[in-house]
């Protein structure tokens, strides 16, 4: 590889401000994003609704909104994740309707040309005044990729492909002159893309890193990564590991987790909801497909498959934030103490869940110093709150 991304970031914004645990809304652009279930209250997408929720999150001081990149669902009775808005055009439109929050476009490397991706992100960076990020996904399930006529690659080959893909994107953002690129998987003749992004040295890159190979990829190329964790202790170990890798590449690194919020008046009520979503409301075929197609379920022992099914049906196996506002705040404080920099939140129903989180959980986080509200200069030059006023 030719690119050594060790250039310090010179742009400042809420995503990297020293204000404590960062918050993002995750998956709002996809139906049933928070759980693979047939429950009547599951999330259904609507553009006006998406705009309202993102603006609510921005006004409350959330730092990011991160879309899924989906092309088909998990079938079954209700086809969870079967309806979705394209993340590039979705983020571009939201960029014109917001002023402070960082927007991400999620991109599957195997489905998008790196030349097209570089141009689209640079354009959205101009629209947003320097508030776009690129969430890079190395691969997904075969039935979806087949729609693009793309060969399904093995785990390590997907990361090798993605490294070449990112090399090209970064060169297109950085170089003003034509360049040729010849890799094992990809080639570009006389590559050129102007204007470049507003942000320097480039828009932040995010990647979900769930394996050793993924951690190495994220440590070298990404500014932020998602890790999976069983508890705060497990999260702390993974934070140390990936930051040590990033240091070896001369880079700093922000570590996030994807978490599922189920907030209720009592602990009993919250857990009753989870049991209903994964029990009588379960879309069993869709749950099985989600596990088999995206989590290697066909290679799992039957008991592990059954245990995972409950989590997928109720929280899509995200880090569980289940209980009262106080209990959820405690869990977030533990993640922050473990070194987690940010949490991307999914919910069964965002229209109800995001306002409730803002009204009940956020004040506790701020009172306890897990988040520190402040006033900062937004990328457009306007004074914007980094937290609730």
Largest sheet: 8 strands, parallel, barrel
- How do the helices and strands follow one another from N- to C-terminus? EHEHEHEHHEEEHEHEHHHEHEHEE
The helical percent reads: 40-55%
Per the CATH scheme, the topology name is TIM Barrel
Sum up the overall morphology in one term: globular
Strand order of the largest sheet: 1-2-3-4-7-8-9-11
User: In the CATH hierarchy, what is the class?
Assistant: Alpha Beta
Radius of gyration: 20 Å
Strand content: 15-25%
**In the residues, how many domains can be counted?**
1
N-C termini distance: 46 Å
Helix and strand arrangement:
Elements: E1 22-26, H1 47-60, E2 64-66, H2 87-95, E3 102-108, H3 114-128, E4 132-137, H4 142-145, H5 155-174, E5 179-182, E6 187-191, E7 205-208, H6 212-221, E8 224-226, H7 232-248, E9 254-263, H8 267-278, H9 284-294, H10 302-315, E10 319-323, H11 325-337, E11 342-347, H12 350-367, E12 375-377, E13 383-385
Parallel strand pairs: 1-2, 1-11, 2-3, 3-4, 4-7, 7-8, 8-9, 9-10, 9-11
Antiparallel strand pairs: 5-6, 12-13
